[in-house]
């Protein structure tokens, strides 16, 4: 046992504990847990590795596709190199988004966090900002990397350029979509405070409910389906707007961002008022 | 300085904390004593703004905890050792807390050194023993060099060496003029550490006094007398209003009469004394006496009370 010596006194504080410190703190938190690192590795593996594999296989079998299938792929040149990988990597982003906040509750860390910074909106704002920036940077980097690698792989049969209509917007949009989805999931994590519950809720909504609403009858079913958060958000991934789409790509992303903002407000109100 | 006025916490129709008013002063260790479920932890969580009071208020250094400019410099707390993300290293855990209050990085190394965790600083906290977790919690409490320290059951699960270490640390912090507020359900622990006591049972304040006052007020003090002339002395004691009893080994146990008076009585009446000694009741006895009616869950067997209070 070391002899008891008290540490030297701290120099006096020069400023208040505020958003700056909270941002640095949240950045340290997110970069020092393995789940973050693994999630980023998985995202890269899916959007580059898995994408390359599928692109290569598609080119390999190109001659055996029906002309209709070939036409489909030519009409949606980003389907293979961007949209499909995003459908997979969004699952990773959803899990990470939930865990960024739910892990604070499941581990008990939240009590340390709020003892250090009892201004809860400062804590939540910092958490949201750090995660949003991380997802945005990683999302955009991966999405552009995937585009440039992917277009080489499919160039033989599906030529695509950044200058083609809607392509640059889709590539940028893929990163944006993942960042918004991350915050959407974070809001669920903050509201439910339970990792498994929140992941189930987000994935259930993204994978199941969003598709089920497509089965609703008549035009109101069509409207509900179009305005479902991720259905609207994913419009940004299509270079060309489909004839029966109710929303444009940016409108769609706007709807998704609106849902996310609403959920974050609910999360903030609950975060501020609930006992930790 | 911690000041609570009418502090109340209600969960549904159960009152966990019922109108507590108290002041915890600097420069001494204040023990917060009560059986399990008495509301100690809830009270501490309200002090730290983790739980909102249903009524009343509590301030630290004159302000609600949530309004402090630099919370970690004012209050350091160890509520439970498991307020840690197990996947993070001890160093990174302390670093993220330090950053939130703009504390210098070297401070993290200093507190790790202080609690003796330097060698495992880069290891993930998940693998820490209960004692190491407790030390890490104390390290985080000390990070901001705070004026107020709050420890909830700090010796739980520690080995004797660890208990001694924490006990000395608390005394040292108080001696430096800091406010030290420590909860326990172990009477013996309070007896050897605390200067002042707040005793609660079922959310209500039962006693707010010094440790000595607590013992004096709440336990019957007896005086043990050994004399070759026990029968004669017993008569004299009864005459003076005391109550003598024999302890089965020929000694007298006198209650309700002060030790000095018994000595004078014997001298004045020529009774020879071989022993005249106070029997000090321990804090544990006094505590059990006091909280007998407010223990949340009584064991069915009377004799099991003691075990339950220790549990």
What can you tell me about this protein's structure?
The complex is a heterodimer of chains A (about 280) and B (about 300). Chain A is mainly alpha-helical. Chain A is about 75% helix and about 0% strand. Chain A is built from 11 helices and no strands. Chain A has helices spanning about 20-30, 35-60, 65-75, 80-105, 110-115, 120-155, 165-190, 195-210, 220-225, 230-235, 250-275. The two termini of chain A are about 35 Å apart. The mean pLDDT of chain A is about 95. Chain B is elongated. In chain B, the strands form 3 sheets. In chain B, strands 5-6-7-3-8-9 form a 6-stranded mixed β-sheet, with helices on both faces. Chain B has a 4-stranded antiparallel β-sheet with strand order 11-12-10-13, with helices on one face. In chain B, a hairpin with a 2-residue loop joins strand 8 and strand 9 (about 205-210). Chain B has 2 domains: about 1-215, P-loop containing nucleotide triphosphate hydrolases (Rossmann fold, 3-Layer(aba) Sandwich), CATH 3.40.50; about 220-280, YebC, transcriptional regulation domain (Alpha-Beta Plaits), CATH 3.30.70.980. Helix content of chain B is about 35%, strand content about 25%. The model of chain B is unreliable at about 300-310 (pLDDT under 50). The two termini of chain B are about 30 Å apart. By secondary structure, chain B is an alpha/beta fold. The chains are: A mainly alpha (about 280), B alpha/beta (about 300).
